[in-house]
Amino acid sequence: MPIALVDCNNFYASCERVFNPKLEGKPILVLSNNDGCVIARSNESKAMGIKMGTPYFEIKNFCKQHNIQVFSSNYTLYGDMSSRVMQTLSTFATRQEVYSIDESFMDLSGYPNLSEHAQLIRKTIKQHTGIPVGIGIGNTKVLAKLANFLAKKYPQLNGVCNFIELGAERTNKAMQLTPVDEVWGVGRKLALQLKQMGIKSVYDLKLANPKLRGKRFSVNVERIVLELNDIQCLNIETNLEPNKQMISSRSFGKAVNTRDALLSALTYHCEQIGKKLRRQNLYARQMT
User: pLDDT at residue 237 above 90?
Assistant: First the structure.
């Protein structure tokens, strides 16, 4: 079964550009609640060496000197844009799993020319929402995720990396050139352990004996190795469990000294939770 992973490029920064086209080509940063630290960067900002999670106060002067456009996070806007993207994507696949606010796994069974179909998806999403996306295609979720990474890393791929059409030899070559850290599910601690065992590239991990790795590490590592070898272990989840808990909260940007201001904020967040509940046809037993 061919699986695609569609991932919005620099999603929060791209959302800001949609509503202000003059920002195209300019460095952009989006900050966390209370403008604490960097949570999103445009490619231009990345090229300047700004890291994710950098406290804003440390780079405030740098941003002014280099005319970097800085935005406070607007999660309502980002949520609405995500809904538009996911709704558009749903028309291009047999099944869809919305994995995160800016990522979606898609079952492309039945589509003959996968790369051509992927380019059509990219073009349509850009036309309908203004958001650029990268697409990775493989026979498993892990391979699709890896292909998506390569699609964004190498501009010559024009936003789409298709392992199925690429063939085994070229896919293995790409894996040899990619550090094991880039595999979906391999965190920093696990990557360090693997490197100490001589498993430095994605291809090294692909050749690892899954049962041996499963005994030494966990069943998750075994599944990753199997998926790298075109053996599907992770299904596309279309019937997700309903939320057991919902949260709508923000830090105040300044001290709140009146009941009216506090009541206004509480009312807004209750409205947001109400929307989420109705969307899933749920009700709340308790509110805190």
Answer: no
